[in-house]
Known about the structure:
single chain, rod-shaped
Amino acid sequence: MSDDKSEGKAKDVVGSAKETFGKATGDKETERSGQADQAEGKVQKGVGEIKDAFTDKK
């Protein structure tokens, strides 16, 4: 597994926790930040999957 996939998954998990915390405390900024982190993590994970696909074909 590439570093991008691992880091992306970690960002997604942290973002989910931030979003949940923001919702629980009524902090809209933290909630939005968590959502942004999740989106960034999903993109980075996708990049890692693409890199892995090209690496596996060699």
